[in-house]
Amino acid sequence: MSKEKKTPKWGKEAFMKAWGMESKKKHADWASFAAAMASRAEKAGREVPEELAVWNRIHTLKAALEKADPTIKCPAVPERPRKVSGEKPPTAAELAKGLGW
């Protein structure tokens, strides 16, 4: 059995530094910000987070910082677009009826 070398996780300090540096670039949208964060992780040889993971980690850190010291000003990030609600997919019961079950 081969042992694959796992990519190290992105540490809190390095993540926060990248967040601060990317926020100074004033990205036009969330997609470009998240891509830049992923690129920084990759260049650092760290596990590349998905864009949702970046969003969640930033907001978890923001909440912790606000609780610890409300005077800390977190770097700004572009707003992540919300999923546009459209038609709901059919339920299992609706699919079953359509299949003649």
Short description:
This protein has helices at residues 12-23, 30-43, 51-68, 92-98. It is an all-alpha fold.
General description of the model:
With 101 residues, the protein is mainly alpha-helical. The protein has a domain at 12-80. The protein has helices at 12-23, 30-43, 51-68, 92-98. Helix 1 (12-23) packs across helix 2 (30-43). The longest helix has 18 residues, at 51-68. The protein starts with 11 loop residues before the first helix and ends with a helix.
User: What is the first-to-last residue Cα distance?
Assistant: 46 Å
Helix content: 40-55%
Rounded mean pLDDT is 89
Can you tell me the overall shape?
extended
Residue stretches low in confidence (pLDDT < 50, at least 5 long) are none
How many runs of DSSP E, i.e. beta strands?
A: 0
Tell me the series of helices and strands, N- to C-terminal.
HHHH
Structural class: mainly alpha
**Percent in strands:** under 5%
How would you characterize the largest beta sheet? none
Using the CA coordinates, give the radius of gyration.
19 Å
**Count of helical segments?**
4
